[in-house]
Amino acid sequence: MNIRQEQPSDYREVENLTREAFWNVYRPGCTEHFVLNRFRENPDFIPELDLVMEHDGHIIGHVMFSRAELVLDDGTKCPSWTFGPISIHPDYKRQGYGLQLLNHALAKARGMGVGFLCMEGNIAFYSQAGFGLASKLGIHYHAEPRDAEVPYFLAQELIPGWLKARGIVEATYCPPKGYFVADADPETFEAYEATFPAKEKAFLPGQLPQFCQSCGMPLARAEDFGTNADGSTNFDYCRHCYQDGKYNM
Asked: Is position 241 within any domain?
């Protein structure tokens, strides 16, 4: 097993790996590979912590880190960090490779002076790498009520006492803007997605809540989604806004 920094010659292979790893996991299809594609040029991107894992000469895993911010109650902004997407090829999942890659990356980040990480994920997995609920550290999630204990919003002091040394008792976490590039530029994302082999999108139990991109209606059941001209499901709009490939306006 070898873990090294990603090289430009790896880009397409890593993006395809990311697409395979996240397809239909959190939503029908995925956008994480497009985030990665665009984020490499983002000033918040940290090239030294853009890592791939190789097995028998093939890339089976990847993780990237970026800069983020903590906003204190008085408006002061404090540097922070985050990571993700972290991807393991489906053929190698649930074999310990993801935790091995993450622990390696965390150790390297700590050595570079990265003191505090926030991220969104499953605590059952990430607690194995030292993460806990961010609310326990007084860190609030930007998109949830301030007093909420958000079960998927996690944090860890890589350098013990990092928050106290900066006088941070409470703060709100603001993720990098580049993480939402697919939502901000859906047409460019669709053109990018079309360069990959076609895969079937599916609405599956356990995915994150989906909402109509036109009216905001929650899409909680398969029958809530709109339809394309060929009768296939459209996962972006509800049946009230979009049917048979046409907007209902």
From this structure: yes
Range of lowest pLDDT (125-134, 156-165, 236-245): 236-245
Angle between the 186-193 and 32-39 helix axes, to the nearest 10 degrees? 100
Write down which residue in 134, 163, 181 finishes a domain: 181
Q: Is 155 exposed, middle or buried (0-12, 13-18, 19+ CB in 10 A)?
A: buried
Measured on CA atoms in the order 14, 20, 24, 28, is the torsion positive or negative?
positive
Number of domains the chain contains:
2
Per-residue model confidence as pLDDT tens digits over 173-206: 998 888 888 888 889 999 999 999 999 998 888 7
Tell me if residue 127 falls in helix, strand or coil: helix
Residue 23 and residue 94 share a domain? yes
Q: Is 7 exposed, middle or buried (0-12, 13-18, 19+ CB in 10 A)?
A: exposed
pLDDT at residue number 247: 86
> How many Cα neighbours within 13 Å face the side chain of 93?
12
Looking at the structure, tell me whether residues 160 and 54 fall in a common domain.
yes
Q: What range does the domain containing 40 cover?
A: 2-181
Alpha helices per DSSP H over 1-92: 11-22, 32-39
Rounded Cα distance, 116 and 132, in Å: 12
Q: Which residue has the higher pLDDT, 216 or 117?
A: 117
pTM listed for this prediction: 0.86
3-state secondary structure of 213: coil
